[in-house]
Design a protein that fits this description.
The complex is a heterodimer of chains A (321) and B (353). Chain A is of the alpha/beta class. Helix content of chain A is 43%, strand content 12%. The model of chain B has no long low-confidence stretch (mean pLDDT 96). Chain B is built from 15 helices and 14 strands. Classes of the chains: A alpha/beta (321), B alpha/beta (353).
Chain lengths: 321, 353
């Protein structure tokens, strides 16, 4: 496999991880005054999927969208400014962490109503076909959104019209604190559901970025052949609490053992060891990458903190287009 | 002689001309391409504009609304239709959480030029889940525009404006108006959103109404005139943004206000108009403003009950008279006769749909 792509994926995962950890570290300053749903531990899915996309392809996502936004090339400074509620934010301070957007990068929005984004991203794909364009729409979703009616409705329409859309599901086993076991029957297999609609489906290890990359690559080529949508499901795990900067393994909805098991399957660490073992990455280069990322993050935080808050007139702007 | 069309034909013509004018306009909804063509409002569109832009859809109101929104974000101008407003309720998440807020919550970067056509109505036992009037709910949501045309002229011109508008517009049609005819110019024209229409000049009382209730109000105004009460009748046309100015100017002239709203009483749109007038023109009021609405009840099906449920001309007359402290009159006294059952709009209406 192309070494440059592998290096880029390592870089992107590490960058996302470091950004999220920096947010967690500084959250207690109480200057980021909006909920944050950090994706630490889940970077492999975002990066492995987006490495298959071009700038003109569209991505949409959920409340836990930082990784998807960044992996698609979303501007970091505008993201940080948005979380700080500043006028320079990607949504001019009106959206916050749960409403990331960067049109230049093809990241067309994230929303936190579970499942609600699925038909909208399917609609992007419908628009693409109405306009006879060659793009792909990818929507990142969580395991709980497959329980929503619009999941089925969107699969149905996507299959009916053979739309160029990938439903990329990150199964992290929890919806807030509710485990899969109280939400879905043990026999349920979403790939079987997707196939029943006539949709190409596959699943893989979300903590193995190469697995994610290869699975997505097949889905993309299948769409490019005009064969219609794909449903992909990747198992992964959120390390930190559902919402906020802390760890919450002590509150009783999951065990420390389970967390440690997944912590040991870190998508970045395992990939780093693999690349080192294959002499694709050397320690010196890794240190250089880390320094570069740190300095970019410092700059982004400084940009966010130094940016002005929105002017009072902004309260009333953008109601109607 | 000026050409006349009925309300349904006016809607069809607006859609047809907008599709011809702008290739990004498309229409989808259950039954759009079926032989009935959504009460005739979509007949022939598929042959003219192609199956790609004129399509029936899965019965998945919420998902399909989201799909329309997604396509609108990248430049399409979808028109969605629902044969009953009641079916649309499944799509509240997409309308309220996404369509209405998208422009604002992403800092003005994207827009949702989406027209949602919703059909309200009454009669022939439509009952609790086929005849609701839910306009007030939409007016409560920032980011939406809400339109309720009464005349065929406005049905065409307001639909053109709705389709050309860069925002989600809720376009509410009354089934009992589809057969009502009026002068409709052949060329494409726009009636601006946000402007009420003064349908009849008067000096004694302002009666504000919308959609099918304007028809009843105009009849009532005729009877009131016979007792020397001249009513000014205002057709709201656009509930949001509301044309306060036309209503307030009228009340400043007449000093009396009656709002006739074909929806339930509590938190209805009549309350909004009365509150607005009370805030802005209190000193002009000679009597307390009144509202005539449906009772706070689901729609009953039996004609015997439905006849009690819907206010009619006589109720408008008497409520207007009450603002002058005049006693009620009866239909017999006024010579109001019903030469047809009350559960149909006219002789051409035969149900069952």
């Amino acid at each position: 496999m192309n070494q440059e792509i592998q290096k880029k994926m390592y870089y992107d995962m590490l960058r996302i991880r470091t950004i999220e950890e920096a947010i967690a570290e500084r959250y207690s300053e109480w200057e980021m005054r909006c909920p944050v749903h950090l994706c630490v531990g889940q970077e492999g899915v975002a990066v492995g999927v987006c490495a298959n996309l071009n700038q003109q392809d569209y991505v949409m996502s959920t409340h836990r969208s930082h990784a998807h936004y960044l992996a698609k090339g979303g501007n970091l400074k505008n993201m940080m400014a948005e979380i700080y509620g500043k006028a320079t934010g990607c949504s001019k301070g009106k959206g916050g962490s749960m409403h990331m957007v960067d049109l230049d990068a093809g990241f067309l929005g994230a929303t936190p109503i579970v499942g609600s984004i699925i038909p909208v991203a399917t609609g992007l794909a419908f628009g693409i076909t109405l306009k006879d364009e060659k793009r792909i729409s990818v929507v990142f979703i969580g395991d709980a959104s497959t329980e929503e009616g619009v999941f089925s409705e969107s699969l149905n329409f996507a299959a009916l019209k053979k739309l160029p859309v990938i439903f990329a599901c990150e199964n992290n086993f929890f919806s807030v604190y509710s485990p899969l076991s109280v939400r879905q029957p043990a026999e349920r297999d979403n790939t079987a559901i997707a196939r029943a609609y006539g949709i190409y489906a596959d699943k893989g290890n979300g903590n193995d970025v190469l697995d994610v990359y290869e699975i997505t690559k097949k889905a993309v080529s299948q769409i490019q052949d005009g064969k219609g949508p794909a449903y992909l499901e990747f198992e992964t795990y959120r390390w930190r609490e559902h919402c906020g900067p802390n760890f919450d393994n002590d509150i009783g909805y999951r065990t420390e053992e389970e967390y440690v098991k997944w912590r040991n399957r870190c998508p970045i660490e395992s990939f780093e060891n693999k690349l080192k073992g294959q002499d694709i990455l050397a320690e010196a280069e890794i240190n250089h990458i880390k320094a570069e990322i740190e300095s970019e993050i410092e700059e982004a935080f400084a940009f966010a903190k130094n940016s002005p808050f929105p002017d009072s007139i902004e309260l009333y702007s953008d109601l109607y287009a | 002689m000026p050409r006349e069309l009925n309300y349904a034909q006016a809607i069809l013509e607006a859609t047809d001309q907008c599709m011809a004018e702008d290739p990004s306009v498309y229409i989808m909804g259950l039954g759009v391409t079926d032989p009935k063509g959504v009460f005739g409002t979509t007949l022939g569109l598929k042959d003219k504009h192609g199956a790609k832009r004129v399509l029936d859809m899965p019965v998945a109101e919420n998902g399909m609304t989201g799909i329309a929104i997604g396509s609108a974000l990248i430049g399409m101008r979808p028109i969605m239709t629902h044969q009953r407003i009641d079916f649309m309720l499944l799509s509240f998440d997409q309308i309220i959480n996404n369509a209405a807020k998208w422009h604002y919550m992403f800092g003005g970067k994207m827009k949702v030029p989406l027209t949602i056509r919703l059909i309200i109505g009454r009669g022939w036992g439509q009952g609790p889940q086929h005849s609701q009037s839910l306009q007030a709910i939409f007016t409560h949501i920032p980011g939406l525009k809400v339109v309720m045309p009464f005349t065929p002229y406005d049905a065409k011109g307001l639909l053109v404006s709705a389709i050309r508008d860069n925002n989600p517009v809720i376009f509410i049609e009354h089934r009992w108006l589809y057969n009502v005819t009026g002068i409709v110019p052949e060329e494409i024209y726009a009636v601006p959103l946000g402007k009420a229409r003064n349908l009849k000049e008067g000096k004694d009382i302002t009666i504000v109404s919308s959609s099918h209730m304007v028809l009843e109000t105009m009849k009532a105004a005729d009877y009131l005139e016979r007792d020397s009460i001249t009513a000014e009748v205002i057709d709201i046309r656009t509930l949001k943004p509301l044309d306060n100015e036309t209503i307030i100017n009228s009340v400043e002239k007449t000093g009396r206000l009656l709002v006739v709203d074909g929806a339930c009483h509590t938190s209805g749109f009549a309350a909004e108009i009365i509150a607005t007038v009370t805030e802005k023109a209190f000193g002009y009021l000679k009597s307390s403003p009144q509202r005539l609405t449906l009772p706070d009840l689901p729609t009953p099906t039996s004609p015997a009950l439905a006849n009690l449920y819907y206010p009619r001309t006589i109720d408008i007359i008497n409520m207007a008279r009450s603002t002058f402290n005049l006693p009620d009159k009866t239909e017999e006294e006024l010579g109001i006769k019903h030469d047809q059952p009350l559960d149909v709009p006219d002789k051409t209406f035969t149900g069952p749909f």
